[in-house]
């Protein structure tokens, strides 16, 4: 049985091991493309889920534009967090995620902030409320110190497991449901890490 000799384009034989190196590079590139494809699919799904929870696509777009303008105006997400909630000594913002908070009026779009001392939420757009015949507008805000969080429960829709929810239960047994994350897993992991370090 004769050995097969591979040749390159100019007719000279390949050096020993070159074929394996090329095959290894192709496999690495293929695996990298598969990982990026999965990340892109997850991101697109997150956007679809986030938009689906909004009342109308036009309202969702208005809210995103308003939020983006506000973030730019203040000079970044950290400054938005600082202006809305104030920052305690040594407190650092770890992550800000766009999501929805479940309220009695339905899902409310906003930003979930995870810091070294608390988890906080602020609605994208002001909520209208009638008080003494006057129409009052205010942002819906929630701020929970990490030491007051009893647990964080991951949850998903039984009929559609790609719809993921995060339930935060406080020590005084209040629960807050967050949903429609652009990247659920990163937000959940960040919150878990913040809780373990507090």
From TrEMBL:
<feature type="domain" description="GRAM">
    <location>
        <begin position="79"/>
        <end position="156"/>
    </location>
</feature>
<dbReference type="InterPro" id="IPR011993">
    <property type="entry name" value="PH-like_dom_sf"/>
</dbReference>
<dbReference type="InterPro" id="IPR004182">
    <property type="entry name" value="GRAM"/>
</dbReference>
<dbReference type="Pfam" id="PF02893">
    <property type="entry name" value="GRAM"/>
</dbReference>
<protein>
    <recommendedName>
        <fullName>GRAM domain-containing protein</fullName>
    </recommendedName>
</protein>
<comment type="similarity">
    <text>Belongs to the GEM family.</text>
</comment>
<dbReference type="InterPro" id="IPR037848">
    <property type="entry name" value="GEM-like"/>
</dbReference>
């Amino acid at each position: 049985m004769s050995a097969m000799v591979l040749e390159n384009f100019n007719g000279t034989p390949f050096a020993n091991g070159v074929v394996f190196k090329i095959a290894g590079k192709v496999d690495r590139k293929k695996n990298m493309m598969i990982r990026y494809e999965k990340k892109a699919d997850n991101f697109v799904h997150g956007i679809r889920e986030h938009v689906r929870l909004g009342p109308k696509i036009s309202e969702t777009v208005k809210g995103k534009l308003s939020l983006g303008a506000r973030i730019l105006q203040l000079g970044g997400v950290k400054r938005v967090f600082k202006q809305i909630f104030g920052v305690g000594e040594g407190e650092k913002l770890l992550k800000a995620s766009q999501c929805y908070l479940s309220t009695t009026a339905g899902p409310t779009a906003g930003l979930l902030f995870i810091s070294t001392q608390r988890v906080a939420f602020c609605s994208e757009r002001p909520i209208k409320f009638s008080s003494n015949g006057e129409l009052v507008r205010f942002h819906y805000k929630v701020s929970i110190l990490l030491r007051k969080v009893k647990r964080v429960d991951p949850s998903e829709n039984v009929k559609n497991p790609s719809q993921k929810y995060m339930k935060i239960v406080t020590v005084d047994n209040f629960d807050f449901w967050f949903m429609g994350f652009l990247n659920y897993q990163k937000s959940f992991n960040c919150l878990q890490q913040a809780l373990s370090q507090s």
